[in-house]
Write a structure and sequence with these properties.
By secondary structure, this protein is mainly alpha-helical. The chain has helices at 31-36, 42-59, 66-77, and strands at 17-18, 23-24. The chain has three helices and two strands. Helix 2 packs antiparallel against helix 3 (66-77).
Amino acid sequence: MSYSKPIKSPCLRVCAVDGRANVCRGCGRSLKEIAGWGGLNDDERDAVLRELPARIDALGERASAREEALAKIREALGE
C-alpha cells in the first residue's frame, strides 16, 4: 500500500467569503482557487500561497484570523 503526502493548504476552516474582496476571510483564496486546489500541482499551489499574505493584509479588519492565517501560509510554504 502506498500513501501520498497530504496536500499543503492554507485552510483555517473559517470558510467565509468576503463579498467585496471575493476571497475567503480565513485563508485569502478565491472560491475558484479553493474549488480547484486539489487539481493544482505544488508549484501552482506555491504561487497562490505567495499571493495570500497581501490578500489577507488587504482584508484588514475583515480578515478572520490574520496572524493564524499568515502562520499557516508560512508553514505551507515551508518557511
